Amino acid sequence: MIILGLTGSIGMGKSTTAQMFRDEGCPVFDADAAVHSLYAKGGKAVPIIKAVFPDAIKDGAVDRAVLGQHMRADPIDLKVLESFIHPLVSESREVFFKNHKDADIVVMDIPLLIETGLDKAVHHVVVVTAPFKVQRERVLAREGMSVDLFDSLLSRQTPDQEKRKRADFLIFTDKGLENAREQVQKILRELRLKT
Questions:
Q1: Burial letters for 54-90: b for 16+ Cβ neighbours within 10 Å, e otherwise?
Q2: Could you give the number of structural domains in the chain?
Q3: pTM, two decimal places
C-alpha cells in the first residue's frame, strides 16, 4: 500500500482535489470530516470540550464559531484542544486503514500534515497549490470570512512556499478542474508504474 499525504493551505482546492483521488478509486481519509464527526452531537470530543470550554457546546454538539474564538483569543487553548483531538483523530485513521488494507494507494487528506509531523508517516507528500492572489480571492469569497480571519488562519499554517519545497508532487489548481484532474491521474499512473 502506498500512502499519499495530501495537504495545502486554506483556499488552495485541497478538498476538491481529494474528491478527484476518490473518483480515481483511491480511498481518502478526510481529517476534517473526522473532526466534524468528533464535534457532532454524540461525538467523542463533546464531553472533553464541554469540560474545558463549556460555552462552546450548543445542543449537545460543538459550536465551531465559539470554539474558534477561544483558539484565537489564547494560543495555549489551541495546544490544549490539539492535545486531546489529535489522539481521537488518530483512532479514526487506524479504523480507516483497517477498512482499506487491500487498497494499492490511499490518500490522507490532512490540512496540517506538515505542521503535525505526519508528513513523515506517509510515502509521498502531495501539495495542492495556487498563486496567492487566487487563494486570497477564493477564501475572501467565503461566507463569514474577513481579511483578519484569513490572516489569522494563514499565520497558523506552514507557508505555501515551504510546503511546496517539502512536496514530492505538486497539484496546481489555478488552471481549472480538468487540468487538476489530469495532474491527479498523472501522479497515480506514475506511482502504479513503480509498483
A1: eebbeeebbbeeebeebbeeeeebeebbeeebeebbe
A2: 2
A3: 0.84
